[in-house]
């Protein structure tokens, strides 16, 4: 198993930043290293051949990003979180607005977006909600748009759905099986727009009532987490909600005092100050 030192990781992240304008310089070094090593192993590359490929073969950047930003995800992950969404957070938003906007930041292959759409459909309000789902990786966004997942993943998704206590008899009510895949009803995505957006370098592009960015910032170092949280703060309406991953926290962040904790267990916060 080959290794890679900090100097080489810096060379790789600098090259990507200068040539392609993707900024991984503030990613948590351990996870960046782990993922780069996996790419080198998969593609049978050394540090030098990886740098050469990134320099000489611009299309390779998409493959590289695909591997680098891969996030393991599932539907109705942490069912208790989704119950709190259904029973507390969404009803609280609806006290003030019949129609509202949700941003799924770092949406990966779309399971979380699909989860949200199924939940909103079961609440009878899917048509009133605008959802924007963003990711850095264009390949994974294309995959997310298809709402198609291997049937082998559905056992875990179904278990989560049962623990969520959804109102359908089964997730099977929402998809058909074809060639070993579960193909979900496209109407679920009628109000979803998928967009390429870079959390590190991207602009603020809208105002939202709810922002979900779960298990993404875990890969960022502290200063980058701070930057991204500042972006989320500016992207939220006053009294809007932010949900982050169960292993993530706002506590030490510069913007922490502009939020209150709504649910510490599920890591849900509410913006109280502009």
Features:
274 residues, alpha/beta, Rossmann fold, 2 domains, 3-stranded antiparallel sheet, 10 strands, globular
Main pleated-sheet profile: 7 strands, mixed
pLDDT averaged residue by residue: 94
Number of domains: 2
Cα-atom Rg, whole angstroms? Answer: 19 Å
Strand residue content: 15-25%
Estimate the global geometry from the Cα principal axes: globular
Question: Structural class from helices and strands?
Answer: alpha/beta
Question: Can you list the strand order of the major beta sheet?
Answer: 6-2-1-7-8-10-9
Helical stretch count? 9
Enter the CATH topology name of the largest domain: Rossmann fold
Order of helices and strands: HHHHHEHEHEHEEEEHEEE
- Helix fraction? 40-55%
- Determine the CATH superfamily of the largest domain: Vaccinia Virus protein VP39
Distance between the termini: 49 Å
Assembly state? single chain
Please mark out the parts with pLDDT under 50 across 5 or more consecutive residues, or reply none: none
The first-level CATH class of the largest domain is given as Alpha Beta
In total, the number of strands is: 10
Organism: Chryseosolibacter histidini
InterPro entries: Bact_Chemotaxis_MeTrfase, CheR_C, CheR_MeTrfase, CheR_N, SAM-dependent_MTases_sf
Protein name: Protein-glutamate O-methyltransferase CheR
Pfam family, one: CheR_N
Short description:
This protein is of the alpha/beta class and 274 residues long. The protein is built from 9 helices and 10 strands. It has helices at residues 6-20, 29-42, 47-56, 60-68, 79-94, 111-122, 138-146, 154-164, 222-235; strands at residues 100-105, 129-135, 148-150, 175-178, 181-184, 192-196, 208-213, 236-244, 259-263, 268-271.
């Amino acid at each position: 198993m080959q290794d890679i030192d900090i100097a080489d990781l810096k060379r790789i992240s600098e090259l990507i930043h200068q040539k392609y304008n993707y900024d991984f310089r503030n990613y948590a070094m351990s996870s960046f290293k782990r993922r780069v090593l996996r790419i080198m192993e998969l593609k049978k590359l050394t540090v030098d051949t990886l740098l050469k490929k990134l320099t000489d073969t611009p299309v390779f950047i998409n493959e590289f990003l695909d591997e680098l930003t891969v996030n393991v995800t599932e539907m109705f992950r942490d069912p208790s979180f989704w119950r709190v969404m259904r029973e507390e957070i969404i009803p609280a938003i609806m006290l003030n607005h019949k129609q509202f906007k949700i941003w799924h930041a770092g949406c990966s292959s779309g399971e979380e977006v699909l989860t949200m759409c199924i939940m909103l459909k079961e609440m009878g309000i899917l048509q009133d909600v605008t959802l924007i789902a963003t990711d850095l990786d264009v390949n994974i966004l294309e995959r997310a748009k298809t709402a198609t997942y291997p049937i082998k993943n559905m056992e875990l998704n179904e278990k989560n759905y049962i623990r969520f206590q959804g109102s359908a008899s089964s997730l099977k009510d929402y998809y058909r099986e074809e060639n070993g895949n579960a193909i979900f009803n496209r109407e679920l995505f009628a109000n979803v727009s998928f967009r390429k957006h870079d959390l590190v370098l991207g602009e603020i592009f809208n105002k939202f009532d709810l922002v979900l960015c779960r298990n993404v910032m875990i890969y960022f170092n502290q200063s980058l987490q701070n930057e991204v949280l500042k972006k989320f703060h500016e992207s939220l309406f006053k009294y809007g909600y932010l949900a982050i991953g169960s292993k993530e926290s706002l506590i030490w962040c510069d913007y922490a005092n502009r939020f209150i904790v709504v649910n510490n267990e599920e890591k849900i916060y509410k913006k109280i100050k502009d």
